[in-house]
């Protein structure tokens, strides 16, 4: 089967190398990029119409990133009857419903496994699990940069700023690292995962998010003294007909599976009514892991495997379900009735819901901009 790759950057060139190095049955007929690298003149075009009008090209792999022109290219490919795979979490999260409806209208497949979990076959298996099982919850480490930071702070005693700079040098961080440390990258991955899991459509605004920007070495030492490990987790749950999804630094017992995940690895789990817990661990970013996941989606399309119609019911979002306890470190005042334990300016609260904690964050950060909040995960299922 002949394919075109849009974007010859890190992921696109990774996918190209994977196809060239394998005998998987795919052939890259064209690559679209704004520049034509020397030696690739036969392959690379700057004119998308060359790809759109080529009936031999059955799959378009989008690895451009960002919303535009990726949106225009992907919708044009679907309208032209070509299957689409994409590594672009921003695009998939923003246009989830529209792209699925457009694909269905034109009898095409839309796949985006690398958009959350990078090289891990997470979305592929989540989609598969959701075919006949009822996904009750999902949870995981979906950002390598922040896991690298938290792991180095805990295991090496490094300072936040120092270890963020190393993560940037190693190429893990987003171009603007605030997308990593403030949780926005995970928020999109969480919305996409919850949409697939619960047969619905969640946008990023449906996912209240707390990041790790203000975590300190003292916070980490305090958590360690309590036998807890801090990870930035995406969590989504279905409770009856209601759905909750959120991103929070989360305090886990030392024996939780995520607590053992070091460096920039991702670890994502689902809980199905029938299958129980399934966990997936691996590289959530990088040229070859992500490029390989993009190619795997293309091979699935070629083999017509895992073909499942996606249903898109409206979610009943409710951020009051599944309240849990929080750690708060702030010099602002914390409502007395919330406090279960206090050590100076560190508090452990009674169970609170996301509406309560996010109203508090806004007020508290006005008074103490360094306020740091983490959820306490005491229910592992
Ligand atoms: N900056 C992201 C990460 C890249 O660190 O996981 C993959 O989405």
How would you describe the overall organization of this protein?
This protein has 381 residues and is of the alpha/beta class. The protein has two domains: 2-117 and 291-302, NAD(P)-binding Rossmann-like Domain (Rossmann fold), CATH 3.40.50; 122-284 and 323-376, Dihydrodipicolinate Reductase, domain 2. It contains 13 helices and 16 strands. Helix 1 (10-20) packs across helix 12 and helix 7 (144-155) crosses helix 8 (160-169). The model has no long low-confidence stretch (mean pLDDT 95). Residues 118, 143-145, 172-174, 180, 185, 284-285 line the site of L-homoserine. L-homoserine (HSE) binds at residues 118, 143-145, 172-174, 180, 185, 284-285.
**Name of the CATH first level of the largest domain:** Alpha Beta
Named at the architecture level, the CATH assignment of the largest domain is 2-Layer Sandwich
Termini Cα gap:
42 Å
Element order: H for helix, E for strand:
EHEEHEHEHHEHEHHHHHEEEEHEEEEHE
Short key terms for the protein model shown above:
381 residues; alpha/beta; Rossmann fold; Dihydrodipicolinate Reductase, domain 2; 10-stranded mixed sheet; 6-stranded parallel sheet; 13 helices; binds L-homoserine
Short description:
The chain is α/β, with parallel strands linked by helices and 381 residues long. It has helices spanning 10-20, 48-52, 70-79, 89-94, 96-105, 122-132, 144-155, 160-169, 178-181, 184-197, 217-225, 287-303, 354-367, and strands at 2-6, 27-32, 44-45, 57-62, 83-86, 110-111, 135-141, 228-239, 242-253, 265-272, 276-283, 316-317, 326-329, 339-343, 346-349, 372-376. Strands 7, 8, 9, 10, 11, 12, 13, 14, 15 and 16 form a 10-stranded mixed sheet that branches.
């Amino acid at each position: 089967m002949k394919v075109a790759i849009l974007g010859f950057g890190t992921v696109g060139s990774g996918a190209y190398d994977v196809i060239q190095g394998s005998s998987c049955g795919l052939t890259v007929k064209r690559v679209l990029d704004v520049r034509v690298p020397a030696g690739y003149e036969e392959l690379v075009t700057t004119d998308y119409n060359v790809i759109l009008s080529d009936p031999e090209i059955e799959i378009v792999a989008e690895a451009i990133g960002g919303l535009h022109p990726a949106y225009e290219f992907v919708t044009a490919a679907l309208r032209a009857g070509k299957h689409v795979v994409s590594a672009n979490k921003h695009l998939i999260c923003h246009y989830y419903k529209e792209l699925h409806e457009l694909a269905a209208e034109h009898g095409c497949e839309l796949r985006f496994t690398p958009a959350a979990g990078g090289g891990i076959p997470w979305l592929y298996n989540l989609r598969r699990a959701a075919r006949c099982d009822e996904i009750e919850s999902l949870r995981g480490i979906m950002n390598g940069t922040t896991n690298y930071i938290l792991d180095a702070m805990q295991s090496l005693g490094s300072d936040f700023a120092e270890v963020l700079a190393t993560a940037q040098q190693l190429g893990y961080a987003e171009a603007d690292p605030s997308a990593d440390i403030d949780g926005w990258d995970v928020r999109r991955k969480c919305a996409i995962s919850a949409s697939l899991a619960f047969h619905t459509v969640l946008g990023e605004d449906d996912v209240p998010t707390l990041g790790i920007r203000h975590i300190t070495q003292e916070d980490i030492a305090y958590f360690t003294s309590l036998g807890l490990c801090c990870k930035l987790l995406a969590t989504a749950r279905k409770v009856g007909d209601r759905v909750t999804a959120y991103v929070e630094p989360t305090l886990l017992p030392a024996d939780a599976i995520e607590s053992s995940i070091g460096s920039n690895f991702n670890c994502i789990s689902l809980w199905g009514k029938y299958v129980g817990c399934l966990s997936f661990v691996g590289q959530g970013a990088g040229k070859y892991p992500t490029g390989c996941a993009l190619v795997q989606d293309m091979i699935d399309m070629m083999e017509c495997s895992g073909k499942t119609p996606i249903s898109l019911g409206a979610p009943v979002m409710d951020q009051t379900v599944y309240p849990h306890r929080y750690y708060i470190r702030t010099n602002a005042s914390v409502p007395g009735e919330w406090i279960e334990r206090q050590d100076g300016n560190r508090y452990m609260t009674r169970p609170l819901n996301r509406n309560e904690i996010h109203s508090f964050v806004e007020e508290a950060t006005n008074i103490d901009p360094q306020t740091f909040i983490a959820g306490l995960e005491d229910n592992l299922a």
